[in-house]
# Entry
Amino acid sequence: MGSILQAYPSIQFSIKISGGSSMAYHIAEKQPLCIVGIRIPMVEDTEENLRAVPDFWKSTVQGNQLWKIYRLSNQEPGGILELVYYLKRRPL
# Structure
């Protein structure tokens, strides 16, 4: 009995500017920023990660770690970006 394998090319990022239109931009001086977060170790087994991540978010939201991080957010963009995305997809 055979298995179907799927291969994916490596991720590549590129920026391409083409055409006749100009891009509006400006250079702004910003204050130094601090990036904070909470992490858990991931393993090679995707199924195990899919079980661990929702429990991680649930315990993080219900605990006080999340609010400690939120209080550190004093610049733009405000708030906690990944949490907003997560809660829209899976309300607790």
